[in-house]
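User: Hey, my collaborator sent me this sequence without any context and asked if I could get a structure. I don't really work with proteins. Can you help?
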Amino acid sequence: MTLYQPATPHSISIEVAPQVTGDTLELKSVLSTAELLRRPSRPPDHASENRALIALAKQMSVSPDRILQKLAETALQLCGAHSAGLSLLETADNKKNFHWRAVAGAWAPHVNGGTPRDFGPCGTVLDRNIALLFSHPERDFPYFGEVKPLLEEGLLIPFYIKGEAVGTIWIVSHDESRRFDAEDLRIMTNLGAFAAAAYQTHLSLNVSQRIASIVESTDAAIVSKTL
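Assistant: No problem. I've predicted the 3D structure and written it out in structure-token form, which is a compact way to encode the shape of the chain:
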């Protein structure tokens, strides 16, 4: 079963074991976010964070089709990560896989790749319903060994629409020069709340575009009625 196919000249295919949930494994790569609280933490920069959130709000109103990518870029910048992105569950494949629809940083060539819902870090985060810190996930999910550069450390935050978990927003370091801390957890938790609104806007935009496409491509009469 091929589940990871970056749509780039560097495309790779990875075979993984299907239908295995994170809770059934003794996961070596999972670290509690309590580890972040034990590390030295930089002071918050609320001014930079506020400017970034205002820029996100403007992006959502002016160019909503780019809001997910802008969100990934914002996470990358605010946290000084090496890569950042969003992994999304989609109805087109009955939410069987996470799709990397927005990626910034070193992993940008892997945009539109993905991981299985039932066998990967994102699935583990949703199963446990908490933010998690991962280190070298290829120890538990071998296909990550083919995703270059390797993930040294990753912080994943779940987000929800109407109470349903629909994806994660994440930041990644690719070497030991960057270790995340409690401030990164705080920032990413806030961005996770924004991610829910951004993804809902993205979904609404897609629905509107599909309706517009139907209207433009048909010669039949179309009647709109209220409830």
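In plain terms: The helical segments are 34-38, 46-62, 67-79, 121-128, 182-217. You can pass these tokens on to your collaborator as they are.
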